[in-house]
Amino acid sequence: MDLSKYLGLYLSDGREHLGALRAGLSAQTIRPETVNDLFRHAHSVKGMAASMGFGQTAMLAHAMEDLFSAWRQGARPTVTAMASCAQALDSLDAQMDAVAVSGAEASDEQAMQAFAAALKREAEACLPKPTAAAPAVAQPPKSVTPAKEPQQQPSDGAVLPLGGANAPQALVFVSIDPSSALPAARLLVVSQYLEKAFGGCVIEPPLGEIRARNLKRATFRIASTLEIKDKIRPLRELPEVREVVLETNPAGAAGLVSGGLVTHVRLEAKELDDLLSNTASLLHHLTFLESGLSQEERRRHRFWLESHRALLGQLFSQVLQARLVPFSIVTERLARLARDLGAKTGKALRFEVKGADEQVDRALLERLADPLSHLLRNAADHGVESAQERKAAGKPEEGLLELDIQRDGEALLVSVNDDGRGLDAGAIGKVAVERGLISPEEAARLPRERILELITLPAFSTRRNVSEISGRGVGMDVARNAAEALGGHLEMDSQAGKGTRFTLVIPSAATLTQVLVFGWKGSPRFGIPASQVRHIYPLCSHSLSWAGARRCLQDGDTLIPVLPWRLGPVGKDGCGLAVMGPSGERVVLVSEVFDSERVVIHPWGPPLDQIPHWIGGALLSGGETAYIVDGRALARDEGKMNEGEAKDVSTTW
Amino acid sequence: MPAKVLIVDDAMFMRAMIRDILINSGRYEVAGEAANGEEAVAQYRALRPDLVTMDIVMPQMDGIEACKEILKLDAEAKIVMCSALGQEALVIESIAAGARDFVVKPFSAEKVLKVIDTVSAG
Fold first, then answer.
1. Is the ipTM of this complex over 0.90?
2. Residue closest to A474 by CA, chosen among A461, A486, A464
3. In Å, how far is B84's CA from the nearest CA of chain A?
4. Do residues A591 and A571 touch, judged by C-beta distance below 8 A?
5. Residue in A182, A211, A239 nearest the CB of B118
6. Residue A70 neighbours by CB under 8 Å, 6+ apart
7. What's the rounded mean pLDDT across residues A408-423?
8. Partner residues linked to A595 by β-bridges
9. Which of A83, A84, A185 sits opposite B102 (nearest CB)?
10. What strands lie across the sheet with A241-247, from one edge to the other?
11. DSSP A383
12. Full-prediction pTM beyond 0.95?
């Protein structure tokens, strides 16, 4: 039977079930009726996958189903079980993606077996009744599964992880050191502590999400007991724990959970954008309000002003985090694709990833996955030569496919590189002339890059013989269109015999940029994208001198021209920041570099965007605004202060 | 009396480093060392140390397995995992299995002692 026509349905239904599982598992309290739903969703995934012949998915879904079945018997979901479920869900999601891309499961048997084994252990642990550590949970008689009466008293349904129906609950907010290397593991240690001390604890968001989003804080829901404060105190002493806030009588305990059912909603990225920009505006407004207050008033309202600012800052970073995910979320999928491509083409391929830690917008990432798999496919099919050809060319037999994620100022550059045969511009030009795409004169006159770009034209790339000559073909137009749809473009660079690099250049206003924060005493803060700064020269150890009419900074024997652009006086405690311009390195003088931070840069709208050399504004973690200067533009214009810029700087700020 | 620690790591270099950190603190003494999971379990049985530092990736038996085996011998065993960056999933697995805490390589004496002091007191 041809199953391929059911693929679309399988994917849409399957993803819906997985989404429901994720939502159900992330609820702060898991109720009997939720467990029933969980069981059903897992069961559906298992059945669908089995009928499509996707054995690994079916196997893992089955293991999940067994665990939920144990829960249905009244066993208590534990934190470790939740962690295992999150891992299994991630793996099932990845398989859905693999099926969507290639129509088949990715071979990931070993990992999936391990996840299934973990689920099995959890299910087995449920078999003997929970030990004395658990508070007296009213165990429903085995014959009457609570799931069968989902409607009973929905307002005070049993809260499985936390004991009795009316047991008072408490929330513990914990944030950990930003420098923590493994924040999710750290939060799990906290969770284990609470579980031991209170006989149960639910972590929110779930561990899988904490890992995926690299979150540094979590909320723990525990049963409130008399000695709660004493039991919480040692938490503060745990390594890397920064903040512990206890809320013993959470106001909307029920309202928050809204019946313990729906906790996940889908949001358009645009809505989050609006939320982000409104939050930023609120912070700006607060700054204006504050500046209108007298010293006395400020002192009097200090507490409220500060907590208001802190809360807004928190809100801002929460919205931000909701949008951002590390690039590594898709690299696993692409690595699998590379492995499959190696198997299909019979070429030995090595897949490497650089910069997978870059945080990018979730929606953006989803739209990049497809063009990237096209580029990889192309590189494997056409870029990397056969083993004999490589040997003859004196290359290692293993072909290199490299995914390279970089940030350049505000843009995101995602490249797919190979060390294959490269593109032959001459041959491409010749064929383009034959096809009437360009004239012979153009072929002679056009720069190399423009000639190479011709292969992204659909008319060009679909011709089979041409694709053989160029070494490239199908799919290039897909990648180019995807880049353009995101407001960016596709760049390519290739050297015959050496390899090819395709780069998706995406201008990403809503992603994080590392900036160096600098400023003058009493002035607002300024920033410069760290990627633009090649070197920081402290002026206490590097002297300035005149070379003719030019001021220069001395670095050993080298003199680097200093740009005349300056926002204020610079003394011995200042710094020179080396930025690269078209005619070499230039130094920007600043008074003091305070810090380096990852921020979201908001491009300025009109009329401020008319001022050259400025990229936009950004909110720092302390709640202040920083004005971000474009070092590259400064170097390009040799740092000429524009008419009015200096004045604007001094009067506005 | 200083607490006795069993150091488990397949790299002699790492064992030496941890040993120095522990001894220099004056609060710990080294009960023994093991270079793989099997050795670790055997040593634990013989020495009954107060605390174990456990590398994750090791030949013969890895640190997670060893951690589980030791906990079977002694449910109250205090085990601190030593992980390299990027092994979060393994660390999470071992904590779920019952390890008390973890440190991440490359580590500083200060951080290692903070974790070990906390676990040792708990």
1. no
2. A461
3. 9
4. yes
5. A239
6. A122, A123, A126, A127
7. 85
8. A517
9. A185
10. A202-204, A217-223, A169-176, A241-247
11. I
12. no
